[in-house]
């Protein structure tokens, strides 16, 4: 039965309740389905109506607290009078290099607001691409070059390995220094990046990649002298807080050739890429860079230590001069203890052996000085080409007359009539050691070493002609040997070194050209080394000596440095000692002599002192020796790094501790300086 929908009936049914007499009533299924369908399609965005009342609607307390905390977490957004930091130090992920010290409200009132330090924050453009280790690197660099790591020191070495982003870290440092400082102004106005020629373009591209149009660098690698000088003058003459081109990228070679222009002005920062090129403080590039008016210095190198610790000293001295003391102090305080700690059993006994010229050598020497007259050519105040040639001729004559025999045959200047002085039927096919004082001493050293010890020997010379003489001597004496010079491939070189170092190998002698193999060779299979002729550069001699006295050596090492008494070779030795004491540049080749010698010193090169046991010892005016005999030992703390005046002095073989040299004395030795390596190994020297 269908229910009435009249209002009166509906109201009546509500009063009766659900149990009213409508048991037979059934809902209209069709209408119910329609209603359900309508409810299912109501928009989810419609919200139900709320009942109106006078009670206020309360916001959720948790949401409110979170919102307020978010506001307060960024106090930098609140305007701060006179605050001039470039970037927000409270931004998430910000790299803050400097944070001003906190000051009280009372101090703030008294302070000059314009002079208060501000945060130094890395530009977010760069900060967002820096990886964690690079963020640490940038902070390290900034603290070093601003003097916050070490007081009054403004340099550092960035020695990350390849591929770790050293370039990006340095670009970040450059951009930060050019734009900001705690004093609300740029820290520097100009930067010079010095790199190998092959990397100049790469640096230019990297600056553009990370900084875009924010800065305009200048890259110089080649061009005419006038063009390069013009660019450098424009760069170095810029001044002010915002210079147009604040970054100069230049190759080492171009910098060295045009250093005079750059030295005219001041540069805020210099960065040297592949900085291990500066391992030798004596070369011209090092000197040119070191002379810059640039207190802040960064050196980039993946290999700051390649051969020895003195190279590392040169790098550190470049970025922070004096922080490790002088080179000699560094050797005593750091290098020797480290070497000793690596292998306490190994000790070095270094001996400078003065050898008398033979009668033939003396006559040839005097004839040359008389005919070539190198001293007279210096009267004009300028050294001539012939004088340079004279230096080479005299050095070769000191080694052996055979080395100048071809010049005698040709009757060249200084050797006219010299053939008459040679023995009858003389031939260069035979070595004839008795014609050279040094070769005679070497012959004795090798023979006594071979028959009384199990030691192996390394022979070093600057001249391949001298190595040829060594080969002849070895063939005559039937010594097994190997030879390394510039003609040998790297692969073959490694094989012969490995074979020689094997204790069971039969080779007795390793011949080495100092120019070809001075660096990196490990020849610990030998423990005796003979340096047959001195080098102008003491660093080259030290490199050669380091071939046998190095990590892994277990036997005592004996170094013999042979010199011809009273000749140009003693002058070279004296020059070495003088330059090492001054820690200044030295001569690498004969062509460099003029730049580093006074006119008086040049004249002395061509004097022969026939009556001396050692011209070097005579110049010391030694107070420890009486009538050529040492009566007082050297100072207790002296070692091989000291000046020769603080070595042991021997005018006869009784003062020697090396049995091999004692047995060789009568051959031609006139005087010996000797010293030990480690200060606590007394009594072995």
From TrEMBL:
Helicase ATP-binding domain mapped to chain residues: 147-322
Region spans: Disordered: 1-32
Keywords noted in UniProt: ATP-binding, Helicase, Hydrolase, Nucleotide-binding, Phosphoprotein
Gene Ontology CC annotation, any one: nucleus
A GO molecular-function descriptor: hydrolase activity
Residue ranges constituting the Helicase C-terminal domain according to the UniProt record: 440-594
One Pfam family hit: SNF2-rel_dom
CDD domains reported for this sequence: DEXHc_RAD54A, SF2_C_SNF
UniProt cross-references to SMART domains, sorted A to Z: DEXDc, HELICc
Domain of life: Eukaryota
Biased composition (Acidic residues): 19-29
SUPFAM superfamilies with a match to the protein in the record: P-loop containing nucleoside triphosphate hydrolases
One BP term from GO: double-strand break repair via synthesis-dependent strand annealing
Alphabetized PANTHER family for the sequence: DNA EXCISION REPAIR PROTEIN ERCC-6-RELATED (PTHR45629:SF7), SNF2/RAD54 FAMILY MEMBER (PTHR45629)
Protein name per Swiss-Prot or TrEMBL: DNA repair and recombination protein RAD54-like
Native species: Danionella cerebrum
Taxonomic classification: Eukaryota, Metazoa, Chordata, Craniata, Vertebrata
